[in-house]
């Protein structure tokens, strides 16, 4: 299996430090607001990476943190007139609501920054002792900064050079710092801000030290995989490397994995541009699985352009999958299997036998979910062509049964296609806000069946048209009528 390592800028063979054990740390959210589609992408990407490694038999320990103290949290709390803790707790709960709906599994460990102040202080003390950090008087307390120039390989992840950064006009001048590039490890408290006791007086940690402390505590001094969104490469991950490697003297992470932006009209989503889409709002109009499929339909490293039509396409694609599953169930249940042979059987059997290896081949190439999804859809297309010939032999029916099983098995790696087909349509009834209940649909189907028995074709047609006008499609099968939601 190959993974793209941001650190080296190339695809590398994946070889964990400790044989079959894999330690993964993904930077989580700052809990001060509802999550947007960019957060969803990062969460889905790392969720699938963890699922696939476990599918391959790796023993994965996955850590994803919460930044529960930050300027943004403090500002939000002041604006709403509540404590910073209330803001952090509220938006942690909201995060879980969104992630649960998107099918994101909980990480094995989900540490909060404020519960690891002790570990942060220990690292900062050691960095001061080793000459990598220095203190600055701030009245009653002191701030502590990391001296970037003391770490010669600074910039190795982002491919930035210290001298170029120094001359960059973007770096804000701060008289308290020895160099404009130096970053805060500990911030002396300001009036009205939360604080913790430390050897430097009352204060709070800088953002970057939080992730170093939590990742080292739970995964050791060298991680297998560290990652997050591409926007975290600089300065966050670059600073993490500097302080962690200065502290331990060891490589901080073997592989660095970063997912691309979600864009709108080719621009990165940002609050300043006013083009941020909250997950919560999107889940009001789209099925969560459709949103997940949309996010997995591009390679994780590429930027993905958000457009409502693309999510609608994902919804239509899912509908084809669940329709195929329903069709398989109907064919299996229809007649008792005979020993007839279908001329396309050998071809579809060959496709079936190759499906798993083709899926794994795609995922082994740097978690290429776009290709993996395409492999499954190509098989489903062939499966429908096969079913058009109305297969009925025992071997063929058995193949159909196993096809549904393998679609679910491979789908579980992506956490797609796990519902029963009828549940897909029940959920669509709600999400599409269709003004008819399942009971009412079934009652009308029963009435239509009776009308057809009585040769009352006018009534039968009017029921079909009535349901169609409400977004419900009827399909007549041998001995029964099924309903679907119009996409």
From TrEMBL:
Residue ranges of domain Cysteinyl-tRNA synthetase class Ia DALR in the record: 358-425
UniProt-annotated binding residues for ATP: 271
Keyword GTP-binding set for record: no
A GO cellular-component term linked to this record: cytosol
UniProt EC number: 6.1.1.16
Short sequence motif 'HIGH' region: positions: 29-39
GO biological process: cysteinyl-tRNA aminoacylation
Cofactor annotation remark: Binds 1 zinc ion per subunit.
Segments carrying motif 'KMSKS' region: 268-272
Main enzyme class: ligase
Residue ranges the record marks as coiled coil: 338-365
Oligomer status and interactors: Monomer.
Protein name (Swiss-Prot/TrEMBL): Cysteine--tRNA ligase
The gene coding this protein: cysS
